[in-house]
Amino acid sequence: MSNQSLVTPVGRMVQGSLWEPNTANQQGMQLTKRDGSPRVEYFMGLAIEKANPEFAPFWAQIQAIATAAWPNGQHQAPAFSWKLIDGDGIDSNGKPYSSREGFAGHYVLRLNSGFAPQIVTAGGAANISEPSQFKRGDYCRVVMTCAGNGNDQNPGVFLNLQVAEFIGHGAAIVGGPDAAALLGAAASTYMPAGVSSTPVAPVAVPAVAPVAPVAPVAPVAPVAPVAPVAPVAPHVGITQPIV
Hints:
By secondary structure, the protein is mainly β. It is built from two helices and eight strands.
């Protein structure tokens, strides 16, 4: 039962990208193969409603694959890597997953592939090549394979993304920080003068009459140099009386 192909129930793509692969891990380090050469990874999070009646039989297939891959009961360990998130649970940082768009009330499958998935219209009638036609937040089904990960140190299963089938549009989910959470936690109590909650009419600026240009000053004629004065000859014939 290893590496079995499965088709998921309809869910919503809430994480990742079908078009742009990851080249680095969460620590910013280059993803590499076992031989050390660079690799890429396509990833998507598919949120399936807990109330969807198709989820239980689908998940039973994955549990059967895990049991066959780990016959010594490793799949029963709390740390077994199921590649599944409870959207109403708590993440490793103690933050509720429900604060993320599309997680509350859903199970989120974490699907990966080292190759670009095939992206198709409903029923696989045609390929989709334009990213704007299938964005994060849209609804889809996924053709995937499931197998044991063969990792004795961290036993679990692989959920390998193969084909994404577009089902319908959903509200776009834009990546990046939670602006409302960040800004709400840093609310300011001081407002500069002039701040208004409604648009302010423009203030008329009085026109200033242009200043007439100053006429240029006529150049001053240079002063003729003064002829040097001849030195006065001393009177050598006059003797001062002796007192």
